[in-house]
Structures are given as C-alpha cells and as structure tokens.
Design goal:
The complex is a heterodimer.
Chain A lengths: L1 E5 L3 H13 L5 E5 L2 H6 L8 E5 L1 E2 L2 E2 L1 H10 L5 E5 L5 H8 L4 E4 L5 H75 L8 H32 L7 E3 L1 H18 L3 E6 L6 E3 L1 H18 L5 E8 L4 E8 L34 H11 L4 E6 L3 E9 L5 H12 L6 E9 L5 H11 L5 E6 L2 E6 L6 H17 L9 E10 H11 L5 H4 L2
Parallel strand pairs in A: 1-2, 1-3, 3-6, 6-7, 9-11
Antiparallel strand pairs in A: 4-5, 8-10, 11-12, 12-14, 13-14, 15-17, 15-18, 16-17
Chain B lengths: L2 H12 L3 H10 L5 E5 L3 H12 L4 E5 L2 H11 L3 E4 L8 H10 L8 E5 L4 H9 L4 E4 L4 H9 L9 H18 L1
Parallel strand pairs in B: 1-2, 1-3, 3-4, 4-5
The chains are: A alpha/beta, B alpha/beta.
Chain lengths: ~500, ~170
C-alpha cells in the first residue's frame, strides 16, 4: 500500500511512520513537509491514501485539504489534527476528506483502521459518483430523445391535419355541387338523376366521416386528443348533428326519429365528441337497418346520476358471439346482408367507445337476430360534487395512468373575461385531467400527473396563456395566478376532495 | 371610445337577439352583401349559388389580402372566410379586419376544413364570431348567417322549418 504523508513537524511525521511500520500492512511510505512539493510529485496519483496535516508552512486549514482533493480526486485523504473535537477537521470531512485522526491518538490500530475505512469509503464514493454520472447522462439522453419524439409526433399530427384538410376541400365541393344540382338550382333534374346526385353527396359525406375517424384515431393514439368537458344540454348536442343525419336517412330511405325526454338535466361532457359518437352510432344503424326500415335515437334519464343515449335499428341483428368483436378496430361483420353497402374502415364503433369512456360513460350493445340492435351509452348528469366523484372513480379504472392526482388552483383578475379563461383552461387540460370552476373567477384543476411534472404543467399553462394573449385583438387575456396544491393517491383524493371541492352551478358563473 | 371597448360592446350586442334588429334598421331593406374569402373558386361559387336564392348578394375574394382589401373598401355586412389560403392566411386576415376601425364591427364566420377544437378556440378568441367546419349542412350555414344579417327571401315552403330552427337556436343561446 502506497501512503503519502504531508507533515512539516518531523516529530509527528516520525510518529506516524512508526505507527505504520508497527502495523502488519505492507507499506510503501513517503512523506513531504510542504504542500507544494507534495502536489508537484509526479507519482501523486499512484498513492492509495494521503495523510495531511492542516497547518503547513505553505498552506493553512481547509485549503490544504481542498488543494489535495482537487489535484487527486480519486485518492482518499485523511486529515491529521492536534486538537480533539477540532471544528476545522470536521469541516474538512464535509469538504471531501474521508476521516480525521487526532495526532496524540495515532497508533498502529487507529491508523490502519482509519486508512482501511477511508479507502473503502472513497471507493464507494467514486462508485457513487460514477453511477450518478451515468444516471445523469442517460437522463439527459432520454430527455433529448423525448423532446425529439414529441417534435416528430407533433409534426406527424400536423401533417395528418393538413392532409385531411386538403382532402376535405375537394370533397366539400363535390358534395355541394351534387346537392346544388339535385335541388334544381341550376336547372331541371329528373327523379332518377336526383337520386343519383343525392347518393353522390351522401357517399361524399361518408368519406368525410372516414377522414374524421382517421383523425380521431391518430389523435387518440398519440395522446393529443383534447377533451373539453362542461355542462351541456342534450338538445344542443343533437342539434349539431341532426341535419346531416336526417339527410343521410332520407337518401337511404330509412325513417330516422329522435326522441328526447322533456326537462332533462344537463350532461357533463365534451359536446363535440359526444356528437361524433351519435354520428358514428347512427351511421352504423342506418347502414344495418332493414330496407325502408327505422332507426331511432332516444335520450332519457335512467338514474339520478346518468342520462342514456340509445340508437336502435331494425336490421338483422348481431350474433351473440360477435358482440365484443364489433368494438375492435377494423372489424367488419362479414355475415348477413347489408342493404346499404357502404363500408367504412371499421373504426367507427371503436372510436365511439373510446370517446364515451373519455366522457366518463359506458357503452353497451343489445342485439337480437332478425329483430335489430340497440347501442346505448351513458353520460353523467352535471352535478357540483357528483362530477368530481365520477371523475375520480373513473380515473381509478383507467389503465396506464399515474396513480396520483394533484390540485392546481387558478384564479383570474378580470371577472368579465372569466368565461374566456374558463374555456381556455378547458381546451388546455389533457383527457385525464378535470377542470372544476369553483367560483366565477376561480378554478381547481385536477391533474393526473406525477408531482415532479407539476411545474411543467404550470409552465404549459403560462406559455399557452401568453400565446393566446398575443393573438387577441382586444389585448391580452386577463392575468391568471397559478398555485400548485397538494398531491394524493387517487383513492385518498376520493375521500378528501369529493366533499370539499364543488363545481359552482353554471348559472352563478355566467353573470 | 378605444377600439378595445368598441369590440367588447360589439361582442356583447352580437350575443343578444337585438343585434339582428339593429342591423336591419341600419341597413334598411337593402340586399345584405356577404364577402366570401376562399382560395377555392368552387367553394365561393356554391355559396353564391345557394345564398343567391335567399336574396343575399355574395362577392368572392380569392386570397387573403384581396379579401381584406374588399372588406375595407366595400364594407360587406358579413364575411365568410377560409383559413388556409395563399397570400394572407385566414388568421392574418382576421386580425387585420379586427384591428381596422372601419371593418372591426363586421361579423366574421370562419368556414374551414380544419377540424381542430384547439384551433377553433384560437380563432374564436382572435375575434371570429363563428367557426364552422366544411362540409357544412347548408341549412346550418343559413341559420348561422341569419344571426347576423336579415335573410330577405325565404321560400314559403322553407319558412316554417327555418323559423322553428331559429327559435330553437335562439332559445339555446339565451
């Protein structure tokens, strides 16, 4: 074992040297009386351990230790001191020395014990450093890779959006011109011509729906599908999709009826997404309905918590053993006649089911052969505390999510712009988060993300707020204050949040 | 009155049913003129063909800056515009219209093939009054137009369904 002693007092140096010789170690002992000389040694790095006095002719106190450690970070350093309980020696350990020895107590036992111990500690320390550096490096690599992936993902999404836009424009013209001719706006058409033209427009609309389906699938897949849930009237949801569905039913000579139970409470959902579900289920039903048959959309309240939408056709029905299969992607039932031979990609039902789930609902299908099928889905009734509870219970069941939920409190300074801030927040959160407007100008966001990512959630809100403010003709959007709250496991959150977090009824917000 | 408050009052008025009555008074019984900014001439043509039957006059503009120029010189009663266009995209045209004192009150309906909820939010807060996605059912488009300008000639056979739809929509807006 190679040992270097830096000590200016020849008596002390002799003492250490003797103690070492008395030990049973094989020792290759060297000593220097000045720090500069010690540090200048070309074989400095070859020592297994360095013992150093704190007070040297050319250096004093902690700087002696620091100089040695800086020059040879890999060699363990033991400090020699004359005082017991020397504060400086203790500080030296904090700065990287492995041990200190009170000179008067230095005998062969304490010295060898300290040396062995220090070498071992230094070894572990170096190993730790190495591991830490490895972890840092892989973290850095992962972060870079992640950023690159995110960029690629956004670029891919952007080009899908652009392609679908390019696709939709000529489609719109085809549909429009076909219906303009069919309606006799540019001259007389006979009945057969009209029927063909209506089919052109109808098939064009089918194509458009397929584009929508593909967009939705790619958004769902890449996790960028935004869900903006709020309280909505059922009529409002159906009105947006009714005209196109009615037209489709007419072309396919199916009788489509809608029936909404009067005085329904509002449902809590993303109206546009639910509209897509109704479109997909109804298109499906129109496809499978019997010749000149019937399809009905019925909306009713089935409990104090839920509203049910059902779409029923009078077609051939689905065999029991196929009931699960139909929700799978790209599934097409081969058997049984389809009167209206339009086939899609088989994405419709799969998307419908996913979108219903993202709106805290469930989808079921009943079917009887030769009688027809009914697709039902539920949506929660908007309720101040019920919605939070429903969300948390739903979140618990979602696969592949983090098991914690955090609160982030947001408030805005301008009451007049509170509604705009509200919709800003709703478009910003991700599908597994929830926006609770607790007061007209205050919100609690429930965010399903690990605690360490909350800062980046906050940063995202601030960035988006800035972006929106820049493009606003009325000037920047109201200032918002964001405060990160507590993080809990979902199960605990159900216990503590449900009673303490109430969404303000909509009337009180829209003053 | 600063332009910001002007827009705010304008926004407020638009959301009430009174807005249409006021517009009617202002324009008397003149044919409402609609500016349609879309780089696809067939889209403008089909809108023109359809709206012409309801006594609405449609002027096309085929790129963004042309649209803005038409808006400032001809003061249409309503603008229908696309977003993705060469030579002045929709967002640029929209912000120019909203920043210019003589066009900032003109209602703008954005009609685009983009179906992105986030874009919709952006465009609405950038000052558009409506955001519709192509292809749009014509009866839906007509109903939206009627919120901003008086539709002079509704064929008798369509009148009852049209009024029913409008009443429902108006009830919803309240």
């Amino acid at each position: 074992m190679r040992i270097l002693l830096i000590e200016d007092n020849p008596g002390d140096a002799e003492l250490v040297s003797r103690a070492l010789r008395a030990s049973h170690e094989q020792v290759d002992f060297h000593s220097e009386s000045r720090l500069e000389a010690a540090l200048a040694r070309p074989d400095l790095e070859s020592f297994d351990i360095i013992l150093t006095d704190l007070t040297l002719p050319d250096s004093d106190g902690l700087s002696s230790v620091e100089h040695v450690i800086e020059r040879v970070p890999t060699a363990p350093v033991i400090v020699l001191t004359s005082l017991p309980n020397d504060e400086v020696a203790i500080e030296a350990i904090r700065r990287g020395a492995q041990d200190y020895i009170v000179k008067d107590h230095a005998n062969e036992y304490t010295l060898t014990r300290s040396i062995r111990h220090s070498i071992e500690r230094q070894h572990m320390w170096s190993e730790n450093e190495r591991l830490l550096a490895d972890v840092e490096e892989s973290k850095h690599l992962l972060e870079n890779k992640n950023a690159k992936l995110q960029e690629l993902c956004e670029a891919a999404q952007q080009s899908i959006d652009n392609i679908s836009h390019e696709f939709r424009t000529p489609l719109t013209v085809i549909i429009e011109y076909a219906s303009i001719i069919s309606e006799g706006i540019v001259g007389e058409v006979n009945d057969e011509q009209r029927r063909f033209l209506d089919v052109i427009a109808d098939r064009g609309n089918d194509l458009n729906n397929m584009v929508n389906d593909m967009l939705d699938v790619s958004r769902l897949e890449s996790g960028v599908m935004g869900i903006s849930r709020d309280a909505h009237d059922v009529e409002e949801i159906l009105e947006h999709v009714e005209s196109s569905l009615m037209r489709k039913a007419q072309v396919r000579q199916v009788n489509l009826t809608t029936e909404i139970e009067p005085d329904l409470p509002q449902v809590y959902c993303d109206a546009e997404k639910v509209g897509r579900v109704v479109i997909n289920l109804t298109i499906n039903a129109l496809k499978f309905a019997s010749d000149r048959g019937n399809v009905s959309i019925i909306v009713r309240k089935i409990s104090d918590e839920e509203i049910e939408f059902s779409v029923t056709d009078d077609g051939h029905g689905i065999p029991q053993d196929k009931l699960e299969e139909i929700f799978q992607r790209f599934s097409q039932l081969g058997s049984g006649p389809i009167y209206h031979s339009t086939k899609g990609f088989g994405l419709g039902l799969n998307i419908a089911q996913t979108l219903v789930n993202l709106n805290f609902g469930e989808m079921h299908v009943d079917s009887e052969l030769q009688k027809g099928s009914t697709f039902r889905f539920t949506l929660p009734i908007a309720h101040p505390t019920g919605t939070v509870k429903r969300y948390l219970n739903w979140l618990k069941l979602q696969p592949e999510i983090c098991d914690a939920v955090s609160t982030v409190n947001v408030s805005c300074t301008s009451v007049e712009e509170a509604d705009e801030v509200d919709s800003f927040l709703r478009y910003l959160v991700r599908p597994y988060d929830l926006v609770c407007r607790t007061k007209p100008d205050q919100w609690t966001l429930l965010v399903n993300t690990p605690r360490f990512e909350l800062e980046s959630v906050k940063k995202r809100i601030i960035n988006e707020h800035e972006f929106l403010s820049r493009n606003r003709p009325q000037g920047p959007l109201s200032e918002i204050a964001i405060k990160i709250g507590q993080t809990q496991v979902i199960e605990d959150a159900i216990g503590s949040l449900v009673d303490n977090l109430a969404i303000a009824p909509k009337e009180t917000c829209y003053v | 009155m600063t332009s910001a408050t002007a827009i705010k009052e304008h926004t407020f008025e638009r959301t009430t049913a009174k807005a249409v009555d006021k517009l009617q008074q202002a324009h008397g019984h003149m044919t409402p003129r609609i500016l349609c900014i879309d780089d696809d001439p067939d889209v403008s043509r089909s809108i023109q063909l359809r709206l012409g039957r309801y006594g609405l006059e449609v002027h096309p503009a085929y790129f963004g800056t042309q649209g803005f120029w038409e808006a400032t010189t001809n003061h249409p009663n309503l603008i229908i515009m696309d977003l993705a266009m060469p030579n002045g995209n929709g967002e640029f045209v929209l912000s120019s219209i909203r920043a210019n004192a003589c066009t900032q009150h003109i209602p703008v309906i954005v009609l685009t093939g983009m179906r992105d909820p986030k874009l919709r939010k952006q465009i609405l807060s950038a000052g558009a009054d409506e955001f519709l996605t192509k292809p749009v059912e014509f009866c839906d488009l007509l109903e939206v137009i009627s919120r901003y300008v008086k539709v002079p000639e509704i064929p008798p056979e369509e009148r009852s369904t049209f009024e029913k739809r409008r009443r429902r929509m108006r009830r919803r807006a309240q």
